[in-house]
Amino acid sequence: MTTYLVPLILIGGLTSTGVYLLLERTLTRMLLGLLLIGNAVNLLILNVGGPSGNPPVYGRTSNGAQTDADPLAQGMILTAIVIAMGVAAFVLALAYRSYQLTTVEEVSNDPEDTRVAERADEDVVDRDIPDVVPSRDTDAPDELDALPGAEGSR
């Protein structure tokens, strides 16, 4: 099987751009990042699906191809496209509702999360944890090694 470099570079570029956009604070850029990553995964599945060939219908041929095409990759991509459309509609609805409520599209820090994080930094207490744990003889049987009543079943 021959792997072409151009589709792989395109997939890498789409993925890296999608991750960059996903890390932004605005909801529309996050949505674009999700869509780019979804399209990159679809292209990756199509690329890994193998070369084109005869349709997966008995008795049909296509331009003299010797092998049959794998329908699984195409079915997975169609399913992924439908799921991506649902996620895009949901994120667009969230962005629109957030804009209606706050008139700001940027996602800000949650004040409660910030307060809990600051409190956790203050509550760090130095506990009396011994540096060295005493070693035990692991070859000797413990009383917890056998279940109760296991002696009579042997």
Automatic annotation (TrEMBL):
Main location: membrane
Assigned keywords, A-Z: Cell membrane, Membrane, Transmembrane, Transmembrane helix
Topology with respect to the bilayer: Multi-pass membrane protein
Ranges of Basic and acidic residues composition bias in the record: 126-139
Membrane-crossing segments per the record: 6-23, 30-52, 72-96
Coiled-coil ranges (or none): none
Record's subcellular location: Cell membrane
Region: Disordered, residue numbers: 107-154
Cellular component, GO annotation: plasma membrane
InterPro entries: CPA3_antiporter_subunitC, NUOK/Mnh_C1-like
Protein family: Belongs to the CPA3 antiporters (TC 2.A.63) subunit C family.
PANTHER family in the cross-refs: ANTIPORTER SUBUNIT MNHC2-RELATED
Protein name, entry field: Cation:proton antiporter
Lineage, broadest ranks: Bacteria, Bacillati, Actinomycetota, Actinomycetes, Mycobacteriales
